[in-house]
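User: Can you recover a sequence for this backbone? Please restate the input before giving your answer.

Assistant: Of course. Working from this structure:
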């Protein structure tokens, strides 16, 4: 009889191996096959050196996941790798959707990871101390109008906002428009931070106000964290005040 295959959607964290969760590490070690986008697999280095590896380009997600499912059905232990968390703009949902109309769907086991927002927030200080929203500015799978509608709603709601996929080489108009939207809703002195390569080699932070933000420099390995009306810069760190009465106490 054929072995029972298993399939895992594994979030590997932001890239540094010290931020790879122990559970994810265990599953990667156990896997027969590791499937993912090449640069993410490269981040795993020696950990997957003796494994069968399936990698395709950035937009080969559907084919990659189909082949992963086929291998699991054939009895292999398969790890489908996403950066950060697999359920946040990652492969977990796609794998679940692909099994939707199967008579005997495989159980997709989802292993959580540290998402870019967590790693970037830690690098900047504590900007996510109160309610926040995560938005992707990519219009690849979401129509542009929908992206803009959500930006408006979040800007108005005074939620701290984390922007994923903020600006690509070809998509240059949207981010300046989004920043303007936040300036209109919250004012140009609103605190904003960016982190490039959060939680991995080459991490670089910038902190300032919306008026000062170097929009041109923002790229696809960066997240932008826009503060709310209570976000401050304290000792050069980004902090969203939650409401503790700290200054009164000091008196
Ligand atoms: N599943 C991933 C997100 C994938 S979307 C996660 O949970 O983190 C891809 C976007 O995430 C990138 O364009 C970038 O905006 C952001 N991102 C992912 N890893 C990052 C990192 N280490 N540093 C900064 N931004 C990152």
């Amino acid at each position: 009889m054929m072995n029972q295959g298993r399939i895992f959607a594994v979030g590997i964290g932001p890239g540094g191996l010290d931020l790879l969760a122990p559970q994810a590490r265990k599953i990667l070690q156990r896997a027969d096959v590791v499937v993912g986008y090449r640069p993410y697999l490269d981040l795993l280095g020696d950990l997957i050196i003796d494994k069968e590896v399936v990698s395709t380009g950035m937009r080969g997600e559907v084919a990659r996941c189909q082949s992963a499912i086929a291998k699991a059905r054939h009895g292999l232990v398969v790890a489908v790798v996403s950066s950060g968390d697999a359920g946040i703009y990652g492969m977990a949902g796609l794998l679940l959707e692909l099994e939707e109309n199967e008579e005997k769907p495989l159980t997709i086991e989802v292993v959580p990871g540290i998402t870019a927002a967590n790693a970037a927030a830690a690098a900047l200080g504590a900007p996510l101390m109160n309610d926040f929203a995560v938005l992707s500015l990519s219009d690849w799978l979401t129509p542009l109008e929908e992206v803009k509608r959500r930006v408006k709603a979040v800007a108005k709601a005074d939620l701290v906002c984390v922007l994923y996929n903020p600006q690509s080489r070809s998509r240059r108009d949207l981010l300046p428009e989004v920043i303007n939207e936040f300036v209109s809703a919250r004012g140009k002195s609103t605190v904003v931070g960016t982190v490039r390569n959060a939680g991995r080699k080459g991490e670089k932070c910038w902190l300032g106000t919306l008026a000062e933000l170097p929009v041109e420099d923002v790229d696809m390995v960066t997240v932008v964290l826009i503060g709310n009306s209570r976000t401050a810069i304290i000792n050069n760190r980004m902090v969203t005040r939650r409401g503790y009465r700290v200054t009164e106490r000091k008196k």
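That completes the design. The longest strand covers residues 6-11.
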